[in-house]
Structures are given as C-alpha cells and as structure tokens.
Design goal:
With about 350 residues, the chain is α+β, with helices and mostly antiparallel strands. The chain has 4 domains: about 80 residues, conserved putative lor/sdh protein from methanococcus maripaludis s2 fold (Beta Barrel), CATH 2.40.420.20; about 90 residues, Efflux pump adaptor protein, beta barrel domain (Elongation Factor Tu (Ef-tu), domain 3, Beta Barrel); about 60 residues, OB fold (Dihydrolipoamide Acetyltransferase, E2P) (Beta Barrel), CATH 2.40.50; about 70 residues, Helix hairpin bin (Helix Hairpins). Helices cover about 30% and strands about 35% of the residues.
C-alpha cells in the first residue's frame, strides 16, 4: 500500500514539474523577443548653428596682495554679497608700520634741514647784494639748499611707497559683487600674487561658448541667438556681444560672448551650461554640411568613453555599433563614422536592449 502511494506521489510531482517547465519555457521564449522601432539617419537641413556654452560673470577678479604676511582677519565667506570698497582681508603689517614710523622721522629731519638751508640761502642772498659775501659762498649755500630739498622730497616719496604697501594689508572690494571662491583662511600665509578670494560682479551674467574655426565666420557682432538653459528650464533670445578674433590660446576654438538680459537672470548662476542656436542667413546656409548623417541624441549609448547605437543584424539581433560623433544640431548629433546614410538604427525598444538580443520590428 505504501509503495502504491509513493508511486502515485512521484507520478504527480513529475506531471506538475513537466507542466511548469513548459509554461516557464513558453514565457522565456515570449520575453526573449524585444519589439523595437527603427529609423534612418536624417540629413542636415538645419539653418542654424548649434553649440554649447557656460554661464559666467561678465567681470571676475582675483583678490591678492603684493606683500607677504599672515592673514589676521577674513571678513567674508563664499556666497557673501560685497560692496565696492568693503574691507575683505587684513594682513599683518607690523613691519610696514615700523617703516612708516622711520619715514616720518626722516621727513621731520629733512624738513628741519630744509628750513635751515632756506634761511641760510635768504641770508646769504642779502649779504651778496650788500657785497658782504662772495659768489663762491652763495653757490655753496645754494648747493646745500638744493641738497636738503632733494632729501626732503625723497623722504616724502618713501612715505608714499610705505602707504601704498599699507594698502595691500587692507584688501577691499574693487566693485560690488559676490564672493565665489575663498582660497585661504585667517592664519594662512599670504604671498605676493597668490589669489586669496575671487569676486564675480553681481547681476551681470553672460554666456561664453567655444566656436570651431569652420563656423566662426558665420557669426557676427549683434547676431541673434536663442539660449536654452535646461537646468533652470529657461529659453530666451539675446545677441552676440563679443567675438574673440584669436584662437591661439584656446585650443583652436574662438570664444564668443552672448549677453543675458537682466529680466531672465533670476535663478541663473555662473557655471550653468547652456545650448545656443544662432540662425544663419540664406547665403550662409549653403556653406553648412548638408551631407551630414544625423541621429537623435537619445539613441546614443555611452560606455567607457565610447559612443555607440543599436542596429539590427540580418538575423534580427540587436548589435551595438560604435560610432564617432561630430557636432550637435539641437536634439540631433552628427555621426562622422560607423553608420551609413541608408542604415537603420533602433530608436525605441519595448524592453532592455543588449548586444545580441533577439528583436522584432513593429
């Protein structure tokens, strides 16, 4: 009896396992085929130049000193608003104070010698007129007077030099703005020429962009530009305000500056990235690369500094094709190599794509 029960149970488990295996196999088979949508590359019919840039303050200055000494007071921190002439940093200046006291003493001594020489000169001029002093004696007195006058002037110029050095121990803001960087704290040793703070002018922002040499001649001062800042969800119109005529120190790229209107500056900060579009005139459109192969930016895969997109093989499998990209045109990017004009690529998949996955076009 027990044996019959055991055989019955074994048979039941086998039947259930067989049904489950078939059901699971069927699910795997159905899920292994991914439905995809394909498209062909488009050509460049764009009548505008597109490139990226970055927001920056129109005026930025590094605050430094010409003297060496310990920072005794740091009166600001990053993000603080400062006014023109506001005291920012104080540097120890005991040695400068000592030199100032020395120059004051030298000036007092030189003034006394000068006044005494002037009296002697006046007296000898009267004696000379009365023929009670010789011309030689008058020349000697003139020489002493001019010498004392020169020493007094030298002492005063030395005081001006000391006062100038004193100014570098009390660093003030050259204009109203915002403290964007602080390189040192109180107690640090300040050295000549080493930046201590960075101040950006408040309320005056612009976009700085690098333009390649094959496009720079299509941009002119005053050209209209559309600026899109995705991080702030803002799009606005502006004009080109500056074009750097040299690319010698910018890696072959020409720097272009574009104004940001005051009405849209709220919520924008230096360092934000921007997309720039400059419309071309009819005569300039002919100079653009109309044969460029363009694909949507959304289909590009980035892996280990490589860029690629998915295509479909003759056996209906997804293939990750590595490509080399060029310029960006709005939401599209130029493919320089790796994809032909008539080749299809996958733009949408109803599942996770991977290299070798079975796919089926809609």
């Amino acid at each position: 009896m027990k044996r019959n029960i055991y055989l019955f149970g074994l048979t039941l488990v086998t039947i259930i396992s067989s049904c489950s295996s078939k059901k699971e196999e069927k699910i795997i088979t159905n899920d292994s085929v991914i439905l995809v949508q394909v498209a062909s590359p488009s050509s460049n019919n764009s009548k505008e130049l597109n490139f990226s840039g970055q927001i920056e303050a129109s005026q930025t200055v590094n605050i430094s000193t010409r003297m060496m000494g310990f920072i005794t007071a740091m009166n600001v921190k990053v993000g603080d608003h400062v006014n023109k002439g506001q005291l920012l940093v104080t540097i120890s200046n005991d040695d400068i104070k000592a030199k100032k006291a020395q120059t004051e003493a030298m000036i007092a001594e030189a003034e006394a010698a000068y006044n005494n020489a002037k009296k002697d000169l006046d007296r000898f001029n009267n004696l000379y007129k009365q023929q009670s002093a010789s011309a030689k004696e008058l020349d000697n007195i003139n020489l002493q007077f001019n010498s004392s006058k020169s020493r007094l002037e030298a002492a005063k110029q030395m005081r001006n030099e000391v006062n100038a050095m004193m100014n570098y121990s009390q660093l003030t803001a050259p204009f109203s703005g915002i403290v964007s960087q602080k390189m040192m704290d109180a107690g640090s040793m300040a050295s000549p020429g080493m930046p201590i703070l960075t101040i950006e002018q408040a309320g005056v922002l612009q976009v700085s962009a690098s333009v390649p040499e094959n496009s720079i001649q299509q941009i002119q001062l005053g050209s209209n530009a559309t600026i899109q800042i995705q991080s702030a969800d803002k799009t606005f119109q502006s004009t080109v305000s500056q074009i750097n005529p040299s690319s010698q120190f910018t890696g072959g790229q020409f720097i272009v500056k574009i104004k940001i209107p005051e009405t849209v500056q709220k919520g924008l900060y230096a360092g934000m990235y921007a997309n720039i579009s400059i419309p071309l005139k009819n005569a300039q459109v002919k100079n653009t690369n109309e044969d460029a192969v363009l694909v949507p930016l959304s289909v590009i895969e980035n892996k280990n500094q490589l860029t690629g997109l998915y295509t479909i093989s003759s056996s209906n499998h997804a293939l990750l094709r590595w490509v080399r990209l060029g310029k960006t045109y709005g939401d599209n990017v130029e493919v320089l190599s790796g994809l032909e004009k008539n080749e299809n690529f996958i733009i949408h998949a109803e599942g996770k794509l991977f290299n070798g996955a079975s796919v089926k076009t809609k």
